[in-house]
Design a protein that fits this description.
It is built from 14 helices and four strands. It is mainly α. The chain has a two-stranded antiparallel ribbon with strand order 1-2. A hairpin with a 2-residue loop joins strand 3 and strand 4. Helix 6 packs across helix 11. It is globular. InterPro entries: AA_transpt_TM. It is found in: Membrane. It comes from Aristolochia fimbriata. One of its GO terms (cellular component) is organelle membrane.
Length: 437
């Protein structure tokens, strides 16, 4: 396999993965698991809250619309990747907009992935230790089992968790995480199946709420408030930073398109099932983190055992997703700090130091910030929307290689305009809400 140093990626990667030979390449199934794991992160926890804000019909329609646009944007990225000399997202941005473009992307990936990793730890902390939502305290699983002690507190449990995650976070090839990714997808499916089964039982027992099909703007909810749900879905489908590392390890470039399409379909269905079942169970009391609804103090008829299974299954899923996002975050930060240094994997000291520093920063912020909805709003309406839609659309409109068709330009223009409008309205709504507080 021919290797080339991608100056923008800061890593050594196969120059033309579609021409690779032999059996050393990653499998399509492994790519599907890694892509699905990249997509299904903490965003799923706030999907039921988006149904509460938007209503069932607009929310489900928006889920599949964002998934479709995500596939289109990835297709744009890969087409320009194969037409250029680089094999990374940052490299494609560099070819189109110079060093400023690649730096802007890396900064966006830094904030997006850092925000997502912090959100993961916040949710895991909510599951294991106490959390506060809507003015009430929700005990974590370990506190319910073992009582409230310093060693069942959020700070200690998250510190212990990160220590246990170090071996996975130290992996130098993304394909090495395929087994943990497969387990994480399985755990997400377990979460979906159990929550859906509980919702179906609630329907037959007559204890389920009647979900709104359309948004309710008659009360305190304004038109602008509806756009606060958009950043959540954008964040839930922002996985573009892992497409190139995963695709590079496949033997054929056509395998990546199949893996992306299959992953997006699976994730859209999972999001829809979790969103509807969660909203069906808890109605207008649905919280920003749906796992906070699944506790022993909940007013629902769900048994304590099922409450714990639901929460623990998804907490374990997030634990296994954590190393995958840390992988792309580490590459981006290395490219920002050491743009001319040799491959990150060739320097054990630099690799280890970056990993430990990132884990430490994420831990400190996660302990200090209690609310995931605020982080979702920030990440989804700014850096997330740039990575997923604005940058890929801008690459097509720039058309450095002269390969964009009229249809591509129209679609890219519509994608960028919609992304900017939705992001602007979400930011405006957030600013108004903060001003009122």
């Amino acid at each position: 396999m021919t290797l080339a140093k991608d100056a923008d990626a800061g890593a050594t990667a196969p120059l033309l993965p579609e021409r690779a030979t032999g059996s050393g390449g990653a499998s399509v199934s492994g790519a599907v698991f890694n892509l699905a794991t990249s997509i299904i992160g903490a965003g799923i926890m706030s999907i039921p809250a988006t149904l509460k804000v938007l209503g069932v019909a607009p929310a489900l329609l928006l889920i599949f619309a964002v998934a479709f646009l995500a596939e289109v944007s990835v297709e744009f990225l890969m087409r320009f990747t194969h037409s250029g000399e680089t094999k990374s997202y940052a490299g494609v941005m560099g070819e189109s907009f110079g060093r400023l473009g690649s730096t802007a992307l890396r900064i966006c990936i830094l904030f997006t992935n850092m925000g997502c990793l912090i959100i993961y730890l916040i949710i895991i902390g909510d599951v294991l230790a106490a959390s506060q939502s809507d003015g009430s305290v929700h005990l974590g699983v370990l506190q319910q089992w073992l009582g409230t002690h310093w060693w069942t507190g959020r700070a200690f449990l998250l510190f212990l968790l990160l220590i246990l995650l170090v071996p996975l976070c130290m992996q130098k090839r993304v394909d090495s995480l395929r087994f943990s990714s497969a387990v994480s997808v399985l755990l997400a499916v377990v979460f979906v199946v159990i929550s859906s089964a509980i919702a179906i039982c609630a329907l037959f027992q007559g204890t389920a709420t009647t979900p709104r099909l359309l948004p309710d703007t008659s009360g305190d909810t304004s038109f602008l408030d509806l756009f606060t749900a958009v950043p959540v879905l954008v964040t839930a489908f922002t996985f573009h930073f892992n497409v190139h590392p995963i695709g590079i390890e496949l033997q054929k470039s056509s395998d990546l398109a199949r893996a992306v399409r299959l992953s997006l379909v699976i994730c859209a269905l999972i999001y829809s099932a979790v969103g509807y079942s969660g909203y069906l169970l808890f109605g207008d009391s649905t919280m920003a983190d749906i796992l906070a609804n699944f506790d022993h103090s909940s007013s629902s008829n769900i048994s304590p055992f099922l409450n714990d299974i639901v929460r623990l299954s998804y907490a374990l899923h997030l634990i296994l997703v954590f190393p995958l996002l840390n992988f792309s975050l580490r590459i981006s930060i290395d490219g920002l700090l050491f743009p001319k240094a040799p491959s990150l994997t060739s320097s054990q000291l630099r690799f280890t130091a970056l990993t430990i520093c990132l884990l430490g920063i994420v831990y400190l912020v996660a302990v200090a910030i209690p609310n995931i909805w605020v982080l979702f709003q920030f990440v989804g309406s700014t850096t997330g929307v740039c990575i997923a839609f604005i940058f890929p659309g801008a690459i097509v409109l720039r058309d450095k290689h002269g390969i964009s068709s009229t249809k591509d330009r129209v679609l890219a223009t519509a994608m960028v305009i919609l992304a900017v409008l939705a992001s602007s309205m979400a930011i405006t709504s957030n600013m108004i809400s903060l001003h009122k507080k």
